[in-house]
Amino acid sequence: MDSALTRFAAGYDFPLDDFQRRACEYLDDEAGVLVAAPTGSGKTVVGEYATFLALETGRKCFYTTPIKALSNQKFHDLVDRYGADQVGLLTGDLSVNSEAPIVVMTTEVLRNMIYASSRTLEGLGWVVMDEVHYLADRFRGPVWEEVILGLAESVRLVCLSATVSNAEEFGEWLAEVRGDIRIVVSETRPVPLTQHVAVSRRIIDLFAPDQPGDVNPELVRIAREEARFQRDDSRRPRGRNGKGRRSVSYGSGRFGGATSRQDRNGPEHRGPRNSPSRSQVVRSLRQAGLLPAIIFVFSRTGCDAAVSQLMNSDVVLTNGAEADRLREIAERHGAGLSPEERAALGWDRFLAAFCRGIAAHHAGLLPVTKAIVEEGFVTGLLKVVVATETLALGINMPARTVVIERLVKYNGQTHADITPGEYTQLTGRAGRRGIDVQGHAVVCWQPGMDPRAVAGLASRRTYPLRSAFAPTYNMAVNLVASMGRQRAARLLEHSFAQFQTDRRLGGSTASHRRKDEEAIAEYLAAAHCDRGDFTEYAGMRERVSQLEAEQARLRRGARDAEVADSLSALDPGDIIAVPSGPHRGWAVIVDPGTRGGHRDRGSRPHPLAMVEGRSVLRLGDGDIDSPVRRYAGVRIPAHFHPRDAAARKILGRSLDDAVAQLPELPERPARATVDAELADQIADLRSRIRSHPCHSCPDRETHARFAERGMALRRSTDQAVQRDARRSGSIAARFDRICLVLEALGYLTEGGAEVTEQGRMLARIYSELDLVTAEAVREGVLSGLDTPQLAAVLSTLVFESRPADRRRPSWLPDHTCEQAVTRLRSVRARVGRLERDHRLERPRDLDVGFAEEIYAWTAGAGLEVVLGDGMSAGDFVRQARQVADLAGQIAAAGVDQELARGCRRVLNAVQRGVVSMSGEDD
Predict the structure, then answer these.
(1) Do the beta carbons of residue 770 and residue 778 sit within 8 Å?
(2) pLDDT band at residue 233, thresholds of 50, 70 and 90?
(3) Cβ(103)–Cβ(90) under 8 Å?
(4) Which has the higher per-residue pLDDT, 726 or 780?
(5) What is the pLDDT of residues 264-288, one digit of tens each?
(6) Above pLDDT 70, what percent of the chain?
(7) Has keyword Nucleotide-binding (predicted)?
(8) pLDDT average, residue stretch 106-122
């Protein structure tokens, strides 16, 4: 029978797997489908069948991906299959054949189309959502849910996901909001995976060859032998005094690696050296025929260091012909790089390693460099890629072997064990379909490693999909504009985030509450007093405690908010009066501490300052316990460093000169007075307590203990009921609070029923600080700036420092920029206060860490200049594109013509050189 599926399958040189055929048959039934299968299993075949059906039936199919690199890869795949006239591409800054029957695009582009009711949506039959597990991503995830909820009912979804442990739950939600969705789950890897451990110069199977599931006795013996020469606490990090800490801060300790290098390699070291060097690992892989390989190292610096170590150890993995072909790939992609740019990028070092079959791959590389590495690896010429875990997501780069150097990684706060889901994601790259009979996963031995723990990690397949959805200001105005406020609120109640919340609340059963009610009754019976109603008496006592706690909380909260706002308004060079603590006196701000990485969201900044006596230190909560203000200002020496004595001396003189012109140090501010209304309530209750009959009972405190237990349980039960009620409508409630903020600022009409002209401007700004950006436009903060100045100020709205850059002081390039950013901080503080009043999370701080670089670039500086302070080329390009993206959004948002022209000039000034080269980044 010549069915559509038969004709489609004939285009492949391999038979379709059962799960692929079953999913395609569901599409024939006009149903949507969720396919959850391991990396490399071929689930994209199902998405490609949707594109085939679109051409067969005369309808359209949009193929969406989370990042531009994936969109470009899929675009070229489909062009090769169907021809350039049948396939289009839309990635925000690139539009090719957008009215074709098959269009590949990023998810953000489709979201924007839905909000704009684009005519391109007419005739749409299918939407393929590739890598739909990105729904759990904090930044990109909400867009997926906006698309799923916003598409017309007639559109069929084809959702392609990595293996997740709650696929059925996700499928149930999809069926609830999209209608007929069938679930296809396959946990069979297309290429079987064998697990190993690299110990010294050997590669040993993780599991016993003759007893699958049991740990290899050889590894257990190695662990025991190693343990004879280690302290009992060797799996835990050592304190400075040499003693093992009670709390483990390097993961759980089960995967080893916590012992310091000094302990391993110092004169006291005894016992076997089981941890392999990187060159030993690569040589062992080559000897065992396990190349090409991806070696995962959880830091960019570690990746670059690994390549350098392999180069220094004279590892050569290619022959002459392979090296020539690799050189051709590199020169073809890098043809647009100038000699100066090549020098800034260390091109010669990169090319030397690349031609020897070795390269790094991480977000710090230029997109064009990553494109070179990817092509070299996919062709099989490049033998070893040292990569961060980001390679486990996205583009198709399978290997014969995956090596994981450590099973502990830094997550931004602490060193933590990688999860079973992360392990599955990393090892999913092992095994090339149609090439390898088996894939291989190799874990490098670390001192103190427990092989049984490694086996447990390798055996589990837990990777739950958790929604990251949360309404934003931009989302709110777009939803209200397209469907009205009430309908938008109802739509958000159907989000996957709310679906999962409601599922979790199902565990709060009525039977538990009945037991609580019985216990409460018993406590109150035991508190019975012959002199009067002890429950009433205890209630008044409890109410006094609550009011006093509320009084303290309000006093503390208001003061903390005022202090945080005052600190957020500071700039480098501002002179302040430190109000308290051992450093009370005049100080000059070196770094305000408001950059995104310096503090947790919601906490106050801790500025770096020079205090009297010329010490440079961070001012803590004990130093600044009341709001501060700028009294004067001095210029911070260029490239000031706290350890540079000469720079400290210059700044100290400037501080002394400025202080000499100032009046006496102001008096320490008095504490805020207690709220009069609360104080009156507390006084009244205390009077009533003293006159209550039970107050004179000799057994008063005994009765009170039982009454307090019963009332505490009552309070806990009531709070649980209220918490469940709040959570059951948490998404819609947040949306309502957002709408109230938008009403207050004039982006929605009174009552929030319609979007105003200013709201339509906000609807075009897609940024984490969307409302702050819109308010800055309205207040003219961005007006009157030249191109480099505008680029520098815009960068503070999109840039967020990496942890490694947080200690590097950054400055604004000129006084005009400083003035604009000061006004911008005031806007951010005002928005933050309004959000606090509406119980919304306050926006993150502005971050000036990219201002100097983007200022120099848009002023015409070369790459070697902007990378001079240590920023990586990949970070620079990615951040520059974000600035350009925001400038483009503002220019198209209906702002005044002068600002629109200024933003377009920024866009043009940014998009040059390496920033405009292909090799798309996310």
Answers:
(1) no
(2) very low
(3) yes
(4) 780
(5) 444 445 556 788 899 999 999 999 9
(6) 86
(7) yes
(8) 90
CA separation for the pair 553, 565 (Å, rounded) = 18
The 8-class DSSP code of residue 465 comes to -
Pairing assessment for the beta strands 439-444 and 358-361 based on DSSP bridges: unpaired
User: What is the rounded distance in angstroms from the CA atom of residue 42 to the CA atom of residue 131?
Assistant: 12
Q: Which amino acid is at 870?
A: G
pLDDT for 386 equals 94
Task: Indicate the SS3 state at residue 871.
Answer: coil
If you search the block for the tokens 């000094």, which residue do you land on? 262
How many C-beta atoms surround the C-beta of residue 340 within 10 A? 13
Across-strand partners of 577?
586
CA distance 687 to 204: 78
pLDDT category, 3, cuts 50, 70, 90? confident
Token representation of residue 870: 């240590």
Q: How confident is the model at residue 453 (pLDDT cuts 50, 70, 90)?
A: confident
pTM: 0.74
pLDDT band at 598 (very low <50, low <70, confident <90, very high): very low
What residue has token string 């029957």?
101
Q: What are the backbone dihedrals phi and psi of residue 252, each rounded to the nearest 5 degrees, phi first?
A: -80, -15
Q: Average per-residue pLDDT in the chain?
A: 83
- The first and second tokens of residue 368, run together, are 């064009």
For residue 712, give every residue at least 6 positions away whose Cβ sits within 8 Å of its Cβ, in sequence order, or none.
Answer: none
Residues 6+ apart with CB under 8 A from 270: 229
Residue 245 has pLDDT above 60, yes or no: no
Non-local CB neighbours of 770 within 8 Å, separated by 6+ positions: 472, 473, 474, 762
Query: What's the gap between Cα 120 and its chain centre?
Result: 32
pLDDT band, residue 382 (cuts 50/70/90): very high
Per the listing, tokens 């073809």 go with 332
Structure tokens at 836: 């606090």
Q: Please tell me whether the peptide bond between 292 and the residue prior to it is cis, using omega within 30 degrees of 0.
A: yes
- The whole-angstrom separation of Cα 837 and Cα 647 is 43
Summary count for the chain: helices (H), strands (E): 35, 22
Q: Please give the pLDDT value at position 216.
A: 86
* Residue among 181, 191, 187 at smallest CA distance from 159: 181
Beta strands in 102-192 (DSSP E): 102-106, 124-129, 156-161, 181-185
Give 300-350 as a DSSP string.
HHHHHHHHHHHHHTT-----HHHHHHHHHHHHHHGGG--HHHHHHHTHHHH
From residue 87, how far is each of 11, 71, 266, 341, 396 by CA, in Å?
17, 12, 62, 35, 20
The pLDDT of 679-693, averaged and rounded, is 84
Specify whether the CB–CB gap between 569 and 631 falls below 8 A. Answer: no
pLDDT at 259 over 80: no
What is the C-alpha separation between 459 and 693, in angstroms, rounded?
A: 67
| Residue 221: both structure tokens together | 């013996």
pLDDT score of 717 more than 90: no
Rounded to the nearest angstrom, the gap between the alpha carbon of residue 729 and the centroid of all alpha carbons in its chain is: 25
In the three-class reduction of DSSP (H, G, I as helix; E, B as strand; rest coil), residue 69 is classed as helix
Axis crossing angle, helix 367-378 with helix 873-891, rounded to the nearest 10: 120
HEC secondary structure over 193-258? EEEEEEECCEEEECECCCCCCCECHHHHHHHHHHHCCCCCCCCCCECCCCCECCCCCECECCECCC
Q: What is the pLDDT of residue 391?
A: 67
Q: Which amino acid is at 263?
A: D
Q: Choose between 343 and 672: higher pLDDT.
A: 343
**pLDDT value at 621 more than 50:** yes
The pair phi, psi for residue 772, each rounded to 5°, is -60, -40
